[in-house]
């Protein structure tokens, strides 16, 4: 069984890991490969601050709430281990601020797992998928122990300043441009971020800038996490799509990987490839 | 009338903050801070500077709460200003955890710190040996930055800073009209306070920037306090121990106790050991005016020492009180009649 995972951001790698962990022992023929044009630290995931916090409004697909919870539980179970910091995991507390009270699918593979994020359109056109361009400034400000995220319902998510302290640096942001494919840092966006964040937290004026990055959030009304059968020449190739996680990919990645693994299990059952009953997910 | 000449002995957090309060409260005075040690060599510099108050036996709780609140408000204003980085003051959230449910589930200072609440069962899962906890946000005031910041402000206000070891308060007569004694453990000599003793504390300064929350065991013996550029792991309370050299076995013990609470600390690096001698006074903080008299000479002394483990948590409140005592002293008529010691 040849499985190809396309994409090596957080979605590609976690999906590959999840499927591999669950099916390797019951599917001896499992041959899994991850293909990508970019690997860490050059993926869109690498630009994200990595704060696990779902969007404040309810997701269109109620399943996404379960996936968020599964991801949180998975990461929480690992954050207390001695190795947590090396894996980039840490607990952080902070503040969400509001202006007003808020009442809230070519032959060569048997299965292809499509984790191509914002680039999914080049494999198969998807008018629902758009880039949500973001720019961030990373600063050295180790006295910052809390995240501060402002919310402006008129502007929308991530368009209002935010400050997220990480393990080595603090991420300053507040840019979300739908439809903008530019991967180059923009000086006006730099000023917007800097002025907005320094107004929130005046001590940042003394902070040294360590890096400035642009990333493209894979924005979609809801995540595309489903099977599709594509015909290449004379054979059917199974595709599992797992893309369109917007600005909350890290928050939801493990729940989605579990769901993708479930879909993979269904494929194995249909093809009667499992030697023993599938492992309980 | 000539300005009143005031000497403040001691340049730890108590000395410098007292000099500051006196300079604001007492009109027409010239202040000189005299100390043999300045930051980073004071006792204050070893302390983590977490604002969590300690109880003093002879201080009524309302007074202690007032001192704590005054200190918290003073530092909170600095933390929210552009000065915060220079002054070494910032907010930090975290947990105080207990292995058995404490007699007092809500301490007297709960409404002074921010967002005080009991920990949830889910939060307590992080600490399998502990059954109860408090979660709150408080301030951290780091002396290696705070003391130089205060010093700069004092100099800007015309306060003189002098490096000199004082062996006897009478050395300050007749150059000064009033002495404010903020010498901490030095009061054993300067105020004949033989009942004072050091409460030795050893700590580790480590680099572990992923630790964003403080963790304090309710007993106060084990703590993890993340700061601006390092995390302080502690600690010990060794009564009467004057040894300023770090003990390697104690360091291992501290590290092991802290890793038990926060396993990721095993990845900490740049570990440095520090020792401080907390200025412990059995009766608590001495805030009292004494009129020294000898051979017809008279020297008013305002004593302000004995803060033990809780100096930084109440320093501004007690400094305001000391400044009031100095003010009373200065306003009293300057007669040559000696008064008995209080």
TrEMBL record, chain A:
Keywords: Cell projection, Cytoplasm, FAD, Flavoprotein, Oxidoreductase, Peroxisome, Phosphoprotein, S-nitrosylation, Secreted, Synapse. GO terms for molecular function: D-amino-acid oxidase activity; FAD binding. Residues 2-95, 107-263 form the FAD dependent oxidoreductase domain. Belongs to the DAMOX/DASOX family. This is D-amino-acid oxidase. Its EC number is 1.4.3.3. GO terms for cellular component: cytosol; extracellular region; peroxisomal matrix; presynaptic active zone. It is found in: Cytoplasm, Cytosol; Peroxisome matrix; Presynaptic active zone; Secreted. FAD binds at residues 37-38, 49-51, 116, 246-251. D-dopa binds at residues 53, 151, 162, 217, 247. It comes from the Eukaryota. It is an enzyme of class 1 (oxidoreductase). Its cofactor is FAD. Its main location: cytoplasm. It catalyses: D-valine + O2 + H2O = 3-methyl-2-oxobutanoate + H2O2 + NH4(+); a D-alpha-amino acid + O2 + H2O = a 2-oxocarboxylate + H2O2 + NH4(+); D-proline + O2 = 1-pyrroline-2-carboxylate + H2O2; D-methionine + O2 + H2O = 4-methylsulfanyl-2-oxobutanoate + H2O2 + NH4(+). The keyword Transferase does not apply. One of its GO terms (biological process) is D-alanine catabolic process.
TrEMBL record, chain B:
GO terms for biological process: D-amino acid catabolic process; L-aspartate catabolic process. InterPro entries: D-amino_acid_oxidase_CS, DAO, FAD-dep_OxRdtase. It is found in: Cytoplasm, Cytosol; Peroxisome matrix. It catalyses: D-glutamate + O2 + H2O = 2-oxoglutarate + H2O2 + NH4(+); D-aspartate + O2 + H2O = oxaloacetate + H2O2 + NH4(+). One of its GO terms (cellular component) is cytosol. Pfam families: DAO. FAD binds at residues 43-44. GO terms for molecular function: D-aspartate oxidase activity; FAD binding. Residues 5-325 form the FAD dependent oxidoreductase domain. Its cofactor is FAD. It comes from the Eukaryota. PROSITE patterns: DAO. Keywords: Cytoplasm, FAD, Flavoprotein, Oxidoreductase, Peroxisome. Its EC number is 1.4.3.1. D-dopa binds at residues 223, 278. Its main location: cytoplasm. It is an enzyme of class 1 (oxidoreductase). Selectively catalyzes the oxidative deamination of acidic amino acids. Suppresses the level of D-aspartate in the brain, an amino acid that can act as an agonist for glutamate receptors. Protects the organism from the toxicity of D-amino acids. May also function in the intestine. This is D-aspartate oxidase. The lineage of its organism: Eukaryota, Metazoa, Chordata, Craniata, Vertebrata.
